[in-house]
Amino acid sequence: MSLVLDPAAQDLLFREARTANTFTDEPVTDEQVQAIYDLVKYGPTAFNQSPLRITLVRSPEARERLVRHMAEGNQPKTATAPLVAILSADNEFHEELPELFPHFPQAKDAFFSERPVREGAATLNAALQAAYFIVGVRAAGLAAGPMTGLDFEGVRKEFLDDDHTPLMVVNIGRPGPDAWFPRSPRLTYDQVVTTV
């Protein structure tokens, strides 16, 4: 059985999409980011908790502060990408649950009253949303360069607060010269799927 999604869209989102390492200087607009979010916000999370938070790094001063916290090999990419997003998990997401999960507003206190439980749920579900965000960047015709080579605590202190846990930094823009490393191998279906 074939997929319903058009093959060109499959290629755009998955087969031909790669992690970009260089970018052109074409700007990424607020309207593009809004369109990306307005698409990916529909991706599922448990209890519709939607804990992902996005910090856009646009000013030269903020960019310089962020680059200091990136691993050495990631610094040039982050310094030159048209837009950089810090993706984090909001550990106080439960405050929004009465609005986001209106058919069971008690979920806020019934399941998420304890901070360690919230942190685990926020990390898992924000990571799901981060993946949706990367696919959304691709759907906008842009390239994403997600990275976890960074000083997480330094980024948290510099840009966030104690209620937010940084997950990754994503460079965003149109791919530049030599943007792609060779495609790495993938596991086959039989290596991944087990039927019981």
Counting copies of identical and different chains, the oligomeric state is single chain
Which segments are poorly predicted (pLDDT under 50) over 5 or more consecutive residues?
none
Order of helices and strands: HHEHHEHHHEHEH
* Average pLDDT taken over every residue: 96
Strand composition percent: 5-15%
- The end-to-end span amounts to 21 Å
* Order of strands in the sheet with most strands: 1-2-4-3
**Overall form:** globular
Largest sheet: 4 strands, antiparallel
Number of strands: 4
What is the count of helical runs? 9
Computed Rg: 18 Å
Helix content: 40-55%
Strand-pairing-aware structural class: alpha+beta
What does it look like?
With 196 residues, this protein is α+β, with helices and mostly antiparallel strands. 41% of the residues lie in helices and 15% in strands. It has nine helices and four strands; from the N terminus they run ααβααβαααβαβα. It has helices spanning 7-15, 30-40, 60-67, 75-80, 97-100, 107-112, 115-139, 152-159, 189-192; strands at residues 52-57, 83-90, 143-147, 164-173. A four-stranded antiparallel β-sheet has the order 1-2-4-3. The radius of gyration is 18 Å and the shape is globular. The mean pLDDT is 96.
